[in-house]
Design a protein that fits this description.
Blueprint (H helix, E strand, L loop, with lengths): L1 E7 L4 E8 L4 E5 L6 H10 L3 E6 L13 H5 L3 E5 L12 E4 L4 E4 L2 E7 L8 E5 L2 E5 L5 H4 L7 H11 L8 E4 L9 E2 H12 L3 H14 L13
Helix pairs in contact: 4-6
């Protein structure tokens, strides 16, 4: 197997290239902007065919991004069922549902619907690794991001992500406190204070935070202190 993080210092975004070297097939998750040539070079270096470009989420402001990697390869773009994409995207887009599976070589990626940060968020589970985008960006629900839904985020964390094994390795779309990986057990402990009360209490807390900090979210996700 081949696993290569793609960290863009300019945008502070992290994408991930995964490949089955025996079958020479690959996927890329959340490729950062301006990293197309790098990804193509990595594919060429190991003679890999890119099967899928997986997006964990697409914001309304960058919905026009249909992934230039799909233009340069035969890869299919994969997004959530509710993800925003322009009508003139110009290619067949696969809208993945919760529980579906994506295959590359002999490897399988399980699709999880994880709304909250945006309505169409997906996470991808491969072996013991979870690629979750901004699923843990609780801060976005508290500072006025119009796409964020605190209730959906509470459900995603408590009913879906935190039901996975504690040793699951979490790979986000932005560094978490400067780190590019954490265990799910570690994150569960850090979020315990936020999630110990009811769903309604969580929504109320996020609403109060929004009132105190008007405006849109900026920067990378943070964890509760």
């Amino acid at each position: 197997m081949y696993f290569h993080p793609l960290h863009s210092p300019d945008s502070n975004l992290i994408g991930y290239l995964l490949a089955d070297l025996d079958e020479q097939e690959a996927i890329v998750i959340d490729p950062p902007p301006r990293q197309t040539e790098l990804v193509l070079a990595l594919l060429t270096e190991r003679n890999l065919r890119l099967c899928h470009v997986l997006r964990t989420h697409v914001h309304q402001v960058d919905a026009a991004d249909c992934s230039p990697l799909c233009d340069r390869t035969s890869a299919q773009l994969v997004v959530g069922e509710s993800a925003a994409l322009p009508a003139g995207c110009g290619r067949a887009v696969h809208r993945a549902a919760h529980g579906s599976r994506l295959v590359f070589g002999n490897e399988v990626v399980r699709v999880l619907s994880t709304p909250g940060h945006t309505p169409g968020c997906l996470s991808y589970l491969w072996r013991d690794r979870l690629f979750c985008g901004d699923a843990f960006d609780v801060g976005s629900c508290g500072v006025g991001d119009s796409e964020a839904d605190p209730g959906a985020m509470f459900d995603t964390l408590t009913r879906r992500l935190f039901t996975l094994p504690e040793q699951t390795l979490v790979f986000p779309a932005h560094p978490i406190r400067g780190r590019q990986v954490a265990t799910l057990g570690e994150l569960r402990t850090r979020y315990a204070s936020r999630l110990q009360y009811s769903r309604d209490a969580f929504i109320t807390d996020m609403s109060h935070r929004r009132e105190r900090r008007p405006g849109s979210r900026t920067g990378a996700p943070t964890l509760p202190r």
